[in-house]
Amino acid sequence: MRALALYGATTLGSLVLTALATAPTGAAAFPRQSPEARGVALAAERALISGMTFGPCPESEQLPDTVRCATVKVPLDYARPRGKQIGLTVSRLTARGKHPKTGKPVPRQGALVFNPGGPGASSMYFPLVAQMPEWKNIAAAYDLVGYSPRGVARSAPLSCVDPKDFAEAPTQAPVNPSESYKKERIARAKTYAKGCAAKAGDALRHYHSLNNVRDLEVLRAALGEPKLNFMGASYGTYFGALYATLHPSHVRRMVFDSAVNPDPSQIWYRNNLDQSAAFEGRWEDFRTWVAKHDKTYGLGESAEDVQHSYAKVRAELAHKPAGGTVGPGQLQAAFLKAGYYDDVWAMRATALSQYLKGNPKPLIAQAAPRPEAARDDENGNAVYTAVECNDAPWPTDWKTWDRDNTRLAKRAPFETWDNAWMNLPCAYWTQPRQRPVDVRVAKGALPPTLILAAERDAATPYKGALELQKRLPGSAVVTEKDAGTHGIGGGANACVNSHMETYLLTGKTPVRRAACAPHREPNPVSLDERALPLLGIPAAV
Asked: Which CB contacts under 8 angstroms, 24+ apart, belong to 54-58?
């Protein structure tokens, strides 16, 4: 599931060891006597006994002294729990214990673990949200816990190619790729898949969603939590739902923010096709907004006019990359972010406007690759690829990819082919494939859970939230109407935040469904040269 990894949670008593040895309920794909099930129980018991020693965070994490860090050991292969161990990095800010306004004592409700999705994203930064008004009441009651999942950052990092090669720029991004370009991308996908296998070796097959679930269970035990409080965004909702399926009796509270469609038949090939289709609608939302503010940007009075302006910039960059590094591929990646988050709309529109006026610096500032981020970007992509390719069967015949994406690109050209190229290594993957677990929990087996969804979310289309609700009896969906920001918990919508806070602090959810009006549209900022730096955009010389 292609999703941007943004660069941008309860001690209730002692955990009983025998509970850890009890198999999770309701998962035929994870039988009680399987080697992996026994491995999880053993690893969790071991983690409960040893716990984690929190201390100062490494300088590389760039976290304040109030946030403490630790490492939890998990088996690389849960079928061999006494074999090779890998360390997952963990961050924590302990519950503040006082109401932020009154100063009155607030009972601690445990640890809230957050995963931002990807796959391939770290949440080590998560404790910092305690500084935000939207999170202060939650931070008073919960330890806020972030971590880097297996493969990510310092947690047994994966790599498939040299980061310098991964950050190669400028690149092309044809909307209607030629046969020769397709052959070039097929060759590149095969090379990438081989690179993953060569660099990771036999370990590569152990990076998948089921092991992310098992790691989460061990982390819960290492934190000393009898039950898990978890918030997952985007891909984080998928393996959160797997955890709920496999360990329903170990769940206390769960928030699913921007839910992946968990239907096994959707994982992951069809989910990516649905995502590409949805981005077309969100791209139109952006262009319609820009056209509404033509007096500010001068990019056209209709969505079609704005498309023409964008196409003109793309054509010019194909001929002469901006700053030598921003070609059509970099332009596409920068404007894809506008499909995720409307808070970048003004910046992106300004960049286009300035470029067409002869000032390419704003576009270069927003779209050029950053050498200092190359290693993290390559690592994130490697984990994304490994998890999605390992998780499920993918079509192995290029004709299937070509047919499906050619058809889709006729009505959804904005993102279709770029998304296909990102996932194409899965067609040539050499590792064993998992069979997706059927996310499903018996009625009454799981506490109430909360699903947050924006109606026009492109990265995780809205129907995924409704499908997840069907599979988790007792769950409630909070919908932000007529909005499309990806990841809405703790964001700009006070109504959404109120539902989330009420649930985390009291366990109460709406009755099945609740609707929130959309958050306010972005403010178009009319920028002169003096104002450009206020958005982090260099002014023209």
From this structure: 54/90, 54/92, 57/91, 57/124, 58/154
Q: What is the DSSP string of 342-374?
A: GGGHHHHHHHHHHHHTT--HHHHHHHS--GGGH
Alpha-carbon distance 347 to 537, whole Å?
8
pLDDT per residue as tens digits for the range 110-128: 999 999 999 999 999 999 9
Q: Specify whether 486 is catalytic.
A: yes
198-205 long-range CB contacts below 8 Å, 24 or more apart?
A: 199/158, 199/159, 199/160, 200/158, 200/159, 200/160, 200/386, 203/76, 203/156, 204/158, 204/386, 204/390, 204/431, 205/390, 205/431, 205/432
The rounded Cα 468 to chain-centroid distance in angstroms is 17
308 is catalytic: no
> Are 294 and 301 contacting, i.e. CB atoms less than 8 angstroms apart?
yes
163-204 pLDDT per residue, tens: 999 999 999 999 999 999 999 999 999 999 999 999 999 999
- Interatomic CA distance for residues 125 and 376, integer angstroms: 15
Q: Which one of 247, 486, 499, 519 is the catalytic residue?
A: 486
Of 159, 234, 309, 353, which residue is the catalytic one?
234
Residue 289 CA to residue 346 CA, distance in Å, equals 10
